[in-house]
Amino acid sequence: MAPNTCPTTDLDLNLILAAFATHKYHCLHHGRKDGAAGPKAIIKNVDMSDEMQQESVDIASAALEKYNIEKDIAAQIKKEFDRRHGPTWHVVVGKNFGSYVTHETKHFIYFYVGSLAILIWKS
């Protein structure tokens, strides 16, 4: 496999193109752990264990199933991370935003589920 590439099974072409728009981000994709159908997560940037990455995708997927409003999705993800891993977690959910954050080591993830970007970090 060529450098800066990743497998592309079952992914939307637009998401693939977005993931490869710049080579400075590495790309992973995760299916849902429960086997349910739905958009795959495309991880754009991460400083987090593989286990916590999967947990992030699972928590975000559950919030996306429960809520339609971005603020409510972000609130649900934050509350769940605070509950599971202690404070203080921060979450941004949206289709168009920039960010520059400082995070604790091994506590940062930025990924897409469908067209929504999700940024989660602990400080």
TrEMBL record:
Question: Where is it mostly found?
Answer: cytoplasm
Signal peptide per UniProt: none
The family this protein is said to belong to = Belongs to the dynein light chain family.
**GO BP:** nuclear migration along microtubule; sexual sporulation resulting in formation of a cellular spore
Quaternary data: Cytoplasmic dynein consists of two catalytic heavy chains (HCs) and a number of non-catalytic subunits which present intermediate chains (ICs), light intermediate chains (LICs) and light chains (LCs).
| Protein role | Acts as one of several non-catalytic accessory components of the cytoplasmic dynein complex that are thought to be involved in linking dynein to cargos and to adapter proteins that regulate dynein function. Cytoplasmic dynein acts as a motor for the intracellular retrograde motility of vesicles and organelles along microtubules. May play a role in changing or maintaining the spatial distribution of cytoskeletal structures.
Keywords of the record, alphabetical order, are:
Cytoplasm, Cytoskeleton, Dynein, Microtubule, Motor protein, Transport
* Protein location: Cytoplasm, Cytoskeleton
Going by the entry's taxonomy, the superkingdom of the source organism is recorded as: Eukaryota
- Has UniProt tagged this entry with the keyword Cytoplasm? yes
Q: A Pfam family in this protein?
A: Dynein_light
Q: Which species is listed as the source?
A: Mycena sanguinolenta
PANTHER family of this UniProt entry? Answer: DYNEIN LIGHT CHAIN
**One GO MF term:** dynein intermediate chain binding
GO CC annotation terms, alphabetical: cytoplasmic dynein complex; microtubule
InterPro entries from the entry? DLC_sf, Dynein_light_1/2_CS, Dynein_light_chain_typ-1/2
Spell out the protein name for this chain: Dynein light chain
